[in-house]
Write a structure and sequence with these properties.
The chain is mainly alpha-helical. The protein has helices at residues 24-28, 44-56, 59-65. Helices cover 37% and strands 0% of the residues. The radius of gyration is 15 Å and the shape is globular.
């Protein structure tokens, strides 16, 4: 098996706000390789707003909004 490399998209990352109490990538990663980006600091309210926006654009939610 080859090496697994995961990439976190900061535009979609909510640091698990809306799902868990803490970022699961940092909890589950076997090494401390997921640093916080000091140039992208987001408050809990900003992360929750991103979570709500991403959830609103899920395909199954789009059908429910159609008259």
């Amino acid at each position: 098996m080859g090496e697994h490399i995961y990439v976190i998209d900061p535009e979609r990352c909510t640091e698990c706000v809306g799902h868990f109490d803490e970022p699961q990538c940092q909890v589950l990663c076997p090494v401390s390789c997921i640093p916080n980006d000091p140039h992208r600091v987001e408050s809990k309210s900003m992360l929750m707003a991103k979570f709500e926006l991403l959830r609103a654009f899920k395909p199954e939610n789009q059908d429910a909004r159609q008259p």
